[in-house]
Every structure is written in C-alpha cells, then in structure tokens.
Amino acid sequence: MSLKNDIIFFVMDSVRYDQFEKARTPNINELAIEIQKSYSTSTWTLPSMHSIIRGIIPSIPKKTLFSEHVLYKTLPEKLKEYDYESYAYSANPVFIEKYFKGIFDKFWYDHTKTTVDSANRLIRQFSNDYNENGELKFAVMLFMETHHPYFGKPKSMPRTGEGRKEFQRDAITYLDEKLKEIYDIVKIGTELYVFSDHGELFNDEDIVFGHDPRVRKDGRPGAIGSMKLMEVFTVKIIKGG
Ligand SMILES: [Zn+2]
Questions:
Q1: Is the pLDDT of residue 167 over 70?
Q2: How far apart are the CA of 4 and the centre of ligand 1, in A?
Q3: Distance from the CA of 141 to the center of ligand 1, in angstroms?
Q4: pTM over 0.90
Q5: How far is the CA of 86 from the centre of ligand 1 (A)?
Q6: Is 156 exposed, middle or buried (0-12, 13-18, 19+ CB in 10 A)?
Q7: CA 179, CA 194: separation in Å to the nearest integer?
Q8: How confident is the model over 57-104, as pLDDT tens digits?
Q9: Which of 81, 110, 109 is nearest to 96 (CA)?
Q10: Which CATH architecture has domain 7-238?
C-alpha cells in the first residue's frame, strides 16, 4: 500500500479459491496486477472480518476478539494516522456496526435483508459518499450475492454439488461486473483489493453444504474439517490513468 491513494476492500462473501479460479471474471483478469491463493483465519464472516480489520487471529487472544477493548490498533485507526477516513458498506448481517463499534468513521448497513439488488445499493451509497476532492478514503465493502442462496433465488437450485457451484460462479461473475463499476468511480491510483472472507462446502466431495460449523438439527456434523473453508483468493488492482 502506498498510503497516498484511496484503498478499497471489495469482499465477496463465501468464495473459496477453486470456485474463484473456475468462475468467469473478465474484469478482474484484465485489471489485476496480482492474483493469489490465500488463507482466511476463520470459516465464517464475523471472526474473519475481525481479523482483517483488527489484524488479530480469532483464537489468540480470544478475549479481545469481540470486545471493545482491543490491545492493538485497527486498520482504520492506523490509516487515520495517514489522514484516511474509513467507511464500511455491508450487506452481511454480522458485519455490522454493533460488532465493530467506533472503528469506522461511517458504517452503512443494507437493512433490506435481501441480496436482491444489494450490490447496487452498496455501490449507490458508496458513490454518494465518494468525493474526488475529499479526504483519503479507506472503504470496506462486503457483498452477499456470492453467499447462498445466491441472489435470494431459487427453489430450482440444485441442493448439492456441481450444479450449485455453478449458481455461485454466476454470482462471482456478477460481482466482477460490479467491481468494474467501483473501478470506474474511483480516482486514478486507487488500490482495490478483492478477496473473500472464507470458503464454502458443497456437499459433494465435502460432507455438508455451507460454512456453519454448528452441528445440524438432524445430528449431521457442521461445516468443519475441510481446508476448502479457509482457502480463498486475493486480487490486487491499481487504477491506472
Ligand atoms: Zn462470510
């Protein structure tokens, strides 16, 4: 990070690395200066986002993870030293101000509780706040289209395996288009980091579907025990002139 330009975290919820690799992402392919396989610190959103924002891993020190009294500087606090204003835009019901109290200068949560059109609402809000001549800006945007049930749809979605993976890959392609919309809004030099907060299991080679670690009502195990839940991706883009 140069710390002289705006920084955007564009987070696609629940996208594991092999799903990202197989999805059609023409904009990312064209714009990326770096694409990496990377690893999340957790299997679900809340601890993973805490790690990203606070720079700590969920198990150590556990006590401080969900507490307001944290020993370390958060990313927005650190960036404040370089005159960044920090913003969060979220469609995820656990990435909300209540759990990230006082960390961002502005926290905007999409209260509609549906993924239908939520990327557009996030982008509209981002665009309203974006001021070419204002302070340096650090924005974290968490998009839910890639989280099941993918666009809030369909009963027709296959319950398991490759068919359901295709639904998610379509959602990845959709968010790739939305990323280009953000790219077109921001200033030259802006650094965009595209990544996921954790992976997903698809009930094919994996025993269950989802990423909820809790034991199911019918006694089936929760989504744990697969590295696919931690294998994610990171893309770096710098807007050129
Ligand atoms: Zn998540």
A1: yes
A2: 29
A3: 12
A4: yes
A5: 21
A6: exposed
A7: 9
A8: 776 555 555 554 556 789 999 999 999 999 999 999 999 999 898 999
A9: 109
A10: 3-Layer(aba) Sandwich (3.40)
Summarised one tens digit per residue, pLDDT across range 208-218 is: 788 887 777 88
Nearest partner of 143 among 98, 104, 181, judged by Cα: 181
Distance, CA 98 to ligand 1 centroid (Å)?
Answer: 17
Dist. CA 44 → ligand 1 center (Å): 5
Dihedral-angle region of residue 83 (phi above 0 means left; psi in -120 to 50 means alpha; beta otherwise): left
> Cα(142) to centroid of ligand 1, in Å?
9
27 — pLDDT class (breaks 50, 70, 90): very high
Q: What local confidence, expressed as pLDDT, does residue 106 receive? A: 96
**Gap from CA of 14 to ligand 1 centroid (Å):** 5
Residue 127's pLDDT is 96
- Mean pLDDT of the 161-181 span: 93
Distance 13 CA to ligand 1 centre (A): 5
- Ligand 1 centroid–CA 127 distance in Å is 24
Domain residue limits, the chain = 7-238
The residues placing their C-beta within 5 Å of ligand 1, an ion, are 13, 45, 197
Q: Mean pLDDT across the chain, nearest whole number?
A: 88
- Distance (Å) from CA 198 to ligand 1 centroid: 6
Q: How far is CA 137 from CA 8, 40, 98, 143, 164, in A?
A: 8, 24, 22, 19, 37
Determine phi and psi for 47, rounding to 5 degrees: -65, -35
